[in-house]
Amino acid sequence: MLFSDIIGQENIRLQLVQAEQQNRLSHAMLLLAPEGAGGLPLGLAFAQYLVCENKQEKDACGQCSACTKASQYIHPDIHFSYPVIPRKPGDKPLSTDYAAEWREFISTHPYGNAYDWLQFIGAENKQGNITANECHDIIRKLSLKSFESPYKILLMWMPEYLGNEGNRLLKLIEEPPANTFFILVAENQEQILATILSRTHLVKVNPLPKEELVDALVNRAKAAPARARQAATIAMGNYREAMYLLQHAEDDYHELLRNWLNYIFTGNRPALQAWIEQIASAKTGRENQKQFLRYFINLLEHSLRVQFLDRQLLAFSEEEMDFAAKLNKLANLQQMEQITELLDNACYHIERNANAKLLFHALSIRLQYIFRNKPLPQV
Questions:
Q1: Which DSSP symbol is given to 177?
Q2: Are 170 and 282 in a shared domain?
Q3: Which of 142, 189, 238, 282 is the residue whose CA sits 20 to 30 A from 177?
Q4: Cα 14–Cα 37–Cα 201 angle in degrees, nearest 5
């Protein structure tokens, strides 16, 4: 992958290229990027740049033998490590066991997250890991001489999935063989082993600016400008999430939200129960549940903006703008803050496989308390 293939992140590209050109390259780098900001594409492009035989001022050449192999993810001196699952009970899986699937995934879903990857390899509800066995394999591979490039590179995606067995890599990270580089690509700094974090050079990647995201959706995904702007507004700098919204444009979150709040306010328990059964079903799916809650959060934000901004500057439809205006009459600023915090927490738990039925039951009850301006029940 070339830097020119990446959406935005020009400052990070410049930082990486200059570090190599000025011989200031850290042997262990951690690209900390929020979901959908391009952490993995940056890591892939930088690995290709390092092995390129004819480096250009701002990018790899894309034409040499090394670039050809790197772009197909088969360069013998670029090694990959990522979370995997056992194919059958008792297996001790390695990343290389899934090499074919990995090449296909990063070719088609470079902005995907760990959930996308694990579903891609059929994990279902299994937890992915980077195991002790994998750590031993990394040590073995990096102890060998490079085959073609002056550099040996390990690109580890999602080091958050390293347990304490990651400490086996500490000596290698701290004192690697000559011209050996670690590129770690992560989303959550708090979930990385402190011992590994302290031995890496941290490079923070910001979410994509809204205009760059809109431009990418229009020019790459061929989305209509109005729809692209709406998706970019909800996605908040996350290209993966924006693409998901475009692909599920038929999902009527507005109608779903209006029904939910109507059942809560009218106390229609049978209808609310049926609504919860629908939203919590496997057919709806975890990603749709999360997107729905984020849609609600953004509508709350817009309910405040409609008081001060021209409606033409906002991304939602006229019907949604009218609904956002009604929310101002139902909840004050303090109540909206409470609801937003509640929805944020719900998104967090959905990502971690919370029971959707229990979660939306609890949300419905707590929303009733907030709208009635009563203290939330303690749990």
A1: P
A2: no
A3: 189
A4: 55
